[in-house]
Design brief:
By secondary structure, the chain is of the alpha+beta class. Helices cover 29% and strands 29% of the residues. Strands 7, 8, 9, 10, 17, 19 and 20 form a 7-stranded mixed sheet that branches. Strands 11, 12, 13, 14, 15, 16 and 18 form a 7-stranded antiparallel sheet that branches. The chain has a 6-stranded mixed sheet with strand order 3-1-6-2-5-4, with helices on both faces. α1 packs across α3 and α4 crosses α8. The longest helix is centred in the N-terminal third of the chain and has 27 residues. It starts with a helix and ends in a 22-residue tail after the last helix.
C-alpha cells in the first residue's frame, strides 16, 4: 500500500510545483526586468535528485548561486545533461503563451509541462541574470569534466549514451518575434516539439538524464526602454541588475547613458545597503530665503566614492551615513538613512521601513520620520519617483520644534534596499505609487456622478403616465374631482 502511494504523492507534488511555477511567473510578470531569464531544471522520470529550495520572491540568481544549484543537482543526480539553450527568453513568454491563466489548451509548452510533472524534484528559477545563464555551459563543463556536444534531434538517435560516463548535450533553440504576436508563439511551440522529440529519444535509450532549459538573453526590453527614455510615472527598476561580477555590471551600466552605479555599503565582503537616486539636494531657510545645495555629483556617478564611515548593518538594523564637507556653510555635514526590519503577524511576512532621514551638521541634528510612508517587503527594494518633505511629503519632521522644519530634502527617482542584498544588485522594487492615482479617482467619481444622474433621469421618465381623459375644446370642460 505504501509503495503504491509513493508515485501518487510524487505526482501530486510535481503538479503542485508546476502550478506554483505558473502562478509565480504570472505574479512576477508585472515586476520583471529586461536583464533576467528563467531557468528550468528537471530529471528524467524514475530518477531521484536532491530537492532544492527555490530563491525567495524577488531574488535574482547570480553566477555563483547558480553554480551551487547545478553542483547540488549533479552531485546526486544523473550525469548525462541535456541543455536546451534558447537564443532569447523571458518570464513573459511563459505568462503569455504557457497557459498560466487557465487556457491550458492554448499552451505552447505541453512537452515541457509534462516533463516537469513527471520529474520528482523539478527546480524553477524565474529570475537568473543573463550573464549567469551565459556561463551555464562552462559551469557544466567544469563540473562534468567533459566537453559539450552540440546536437540536433536527428543525430541524437545515432549517439549511444552510458549512464556511468557523463555527457553534455547542447541543443540550440531559435527565438524571434515577427510582425504579429502569433509568430513568437509558433516558434516557442516548435521549440517545445524539439524538446519533446529529444526527451522521447532519451527515453528510448533508457539512460537517466538531467535536463536544463534556459536562454542566453532576455526577450523583453521594456524596462531598459523606459529608463533610457526617461518616461515619468511608470514603474521601472532604476539600477541595472545582472550577474554578481563587477565587470559585467559596470559594462552594462556604461551601456546606459545617465544610469550609474548605486552607492554600495559592504560589511566585510558582503553587500549590505544600496542607494540610488537621479537627484539629491538639500535646502536651508535663511533670512526668509531658501538656499539650495546639490549633492548628486558628490554622491553618485562613475568614479565617485562617497565617504560612508559610520554606516552599519545587521539582520534587523541598517544605517547608511553619507559624509560631506562644506555644505551650505557647514564644515561637517552628514546625511543619515536609518532602516529596520521586523516580522508583522497581520501580513505574515517581514517588512523593512525607512525609519528616519537625519541631517547632522556642526553638532545639530534634524530628523525626518519616514516609517509611515516608506516601506517594502524585506526581500524587495523600495522605489519612488520623488521623496521629499515639502512637495507631496513622504518625510515628516519629528516634531514642531525640530530643526528639520528649517530644511528641505529632495530625492529624485529614489531607490533603496537595506536588507537581503545579493551580489550588489537591487531586488525587485516595491513602487510607492498606488494603483489608483488622482486622475483615476477623478475619472471614477465623474463616471459615478454621471451614472447617478442618468439613473435618476430614467427613474423619473418611468414614473410618467399617459392621461386617460382629454379635453375637447368644442365641448364642455372636463371636471376632474379632487378625490380622484
Amino acid at each position: 500500500m505504501a509503495s503504491s502511494r509513493a508515485p501518487l504523492l510524487r505526482r501530486r507534488r510535481s503538479s503542485m510545483a508546476l502550478a506554483v511555477f505558473l502562478g509565480l511567473l504570472s505574479v512576477l510578470n508585472a515586476g520583471t526586468c529586461d536583464e533576467q531569464v528563467p531557468l528550468l531544471l528537471w530529471t528524467s522520470g524514475g530518477t531521484s535528485a536532491p530537492s532544492q529550495a527555490p530563491p525567495p520572491a524577488g531574488h535574482i540568481v547570480g553566477q555563483q548561486q547558480l553554480a551551487a544549484y547545478l553542483e547540488n543537482a549533479l552531485n546526486m543526480g544523473p550525469k548525462n545533461v541535456v541543455l536546451f539553450l534558447q537564443d532569447k527568453m523571458s518570464v513573459e513568454d511563459f505568462t503569455m503563451y504557457g497557459g498560466a491563466f487557465g487556457n491550458k489548451q492554448d499552451s505552447a509548452f505541453p512537452n515541457l509541462e509534462g516533463a516537469l510533472m513527471s520529474s520528482s524534484s523539478p527546480l524553477v528559477l524565474p529570475s537568473v541574470s543573463w550573464p549567469a545563464s551565459n556561463a551555464v555551459i562552462g559551469q557544466l563543463q567544469d563540473q562534468l569534466e567533459t566537453s559539450p556536444l552540440y546536437m540536433d534531434p536527428e543525430t541524437l538517435s545515432q549517439l549511444r549514451l552510458n549512464a556511468s560516463s557523463p555527457a553534455l548535450l547542447v541543443f540550440r533553440l531559435p527565438y524571434g518575434v515577427g510582425s504579429d504576436l502569433m509568430s513568437a508563439k509558433e516558434i516557442l511551440s516548435g521549440n517545445d516539439e524539439v524538446i519533446g522529440q529529444v526527451l522521447s529519444t532519451m527515453k528510448t535509450q533508457a539512460v537517466p538524464y538531467t535536463a536544463i532549459y534556459t536562454a542566453l538573453r532576455p526577450s523583453r526590453d521594456a524596462a531598459s526602454l523606459s529608463v533610457e527614455a526617461g518616461v515619468g510615472g511608470g514603474r521601472s527598476l532604476l539600477q541595472a541588475r545582472g550577474g554578481e561580477r563587477d565587470r559585467d555590471r559596470k559594462q552594462r551600466i556604461k551601456e546606459r547613458d545617465g544610469v550609474y552605479a548605486p552607492v554600495e555599503f559592504k560589511e566585510g565582503e558582503e553587500s549590505c545597503i544600496l542607494l540610488w537616486a537621479k537627484g539629491l539636494s538639500v535646502s536651508i531657510l535663511r533670512s526668509g530665503r531658501w538656499e539650495d545645495h546639490d549633492l548628486t555629483s558628490s554622491t553618485f556617478g562613475e568614479g565617485v566614492k562617497p565617504k560612508l564611515h559610520g554606516s552599519i548593518c545587521d539582520k534587523t538594523r541598517a544605517k547608511l551615513v553619507l559624509n560631506y564637507d562644506n555644505v551650505l556653510g557647514h564644515r561637517s555635514f552628514k546625511l543619515i538613512l536609518a532602516m529596520s526590519q521586523r516580522h508583522y503577524q497581520v501580513s505574515a511576512r517581514r517588512w523593512f521601513t525607512l525609519d528616519a532621514v537625519e541631517l547632522e551638521y556642526d553638532g545639530t541634528k534634524a530628523t525626518f520620520n519616514g516609517s509611515r510612508n516608506i516601506y517594502a517587503p524585506a526581500e524587495f527594494s523600495y522605489r519612488c519617483e520623488s521623496v521629499t518633505n515639502f512637495r507631496w511629503p513622504l518625510l515628516v519632521p519629528r516634531s514642531a520644534k525640530d530643526p528639520a522644519n528649517q530644511w528641505r530634502v529632495s530625492f529624485e527617482d529614489f531607490q533603496i534596499q537595506g536588507f537581503n542584498v545579493s551580489g550588489g544588485e537591487f531586488s525587485y522594487a516595491s513602487d510607492c505609487s498606488g494603483f489608483f492615482s488622482p486622475g483615476i479617482w477623478m475619472g471614477l467619481m465623474t463616471s459615478l456622478l454621471m451614472v447617478l444622474v442618468l439613473t435618476y433621469g430614467l427613474h423619473m421618465i418611468m414614473q410618467l403616465h399617459t392621461m386617460d381623459r382629454f379635453d375637447d375644446p368644442k365641448g364642455p370642460a372636463i371636471s376632474v374631482p379632487q378625490t380622484e
